[in-house]
Design goal:
four-stranded mixed sheet; Spore Coat Polysaccharide Biosynthesis Protein SpsA, Chain A; two-stranded antiparallel sheet; about 20% strand
Length: about 220
């Protein structure tokens, strides 16, 4: 975003983006505990401007994030209740995740142990050289764009993170750590409205989507 404040704390519809995201998991009956991981200097803001005003009851703690995303997730895994069966890992800046998608992911995780939300690639893909010349067209049929939430059996994702830390491996998502264990990860199809707000243009789209959902009570919400 290029601003001073972390993306998750920027306003969307008059309240922080993270507020919308946390409310989705607070409303999900299958979710027992929520652990936001935020920059250490933003813990007080998160508690006073998000958790308390919204009356979020499932947040057991607000934790300081680590140097990298993967480090933050590991801190969260260490802090969850030890009788936890399943863990959902989600980007705080995806405020439009549908509750039915959360529920579907949890159902599938009970069967397979590891599930990611994704969309099939719709655009043409080109392999390009360092000097930006097209080298060929990539077959897009087996390719999917990965989103969050990602769902895991707790013991499995904890083992995957601990092995990655031991090996000094950093992946671009948590599923990559499970894949390193030789375990298959199930894909379920997400929705294009599960927008990740990372640029000023995304924030404009988010405001438009929020107005649409409020005005028309759309079922995609």
């Amino acid at each position: 975003m290029g601003g001073e404040k972390p993306k998750a704390f920027l306003p969307l519809g008059g309240i922080p983006i993270l507020s919308h995201t946390l409310q989705k998991f607070e409303a999900c009956l299958q979710v027992d505990e929520i652990l936001p991981l935020v920059p250490e200097e933003e813990i007080f803001f998160c508690a006073e401007k998000i958790v308390r005003p919204l009356g979020l009851k499932k947040i057991s703690n607000i934790l300081p994030g680590g140097p990298e995303r993967q480090d933050s997730v590991y801190r969260g895994l260490q802090a969850v209740a030890k009788d936890t069966d399943f863990v959902i890992i989600h980007d705080g800046v995806r405020p439009f995740v549908p509750e039915k998608l959360i529920q579907q992911g949890l159902r599938e995780t009970q069967k397979s142990g590891a599930v990611v939300v994704a969309l099939p690639v719709g655009d043409t893909l080109k392999e390009v050289s360092e000097d930006r010349r097209v080298m060929g067209t990539v077959d897009r049929s087996p390719l999917w764009c990965i989103q969050t939430p990602q769902f895991f059996e707790y013991g499995l994702i904890l083992q995957a993170h601990e092995m990655a830390r031991k090996d000094g491996f950093y992946g671009t998502d948590d599923a990559a750590l499970v894949e390193r264990l030789g375990i298959s990860v199930m894909v379920i199809e997400g929705t294009r409205t599960n927008l990740k707000i990372t640029t000023p243009e995304d924030l404009l789209l988010g405001e438009a989507l929020l107005r649409y959902l409020k005005d028309f009570d759309s079922p995609i919400h």
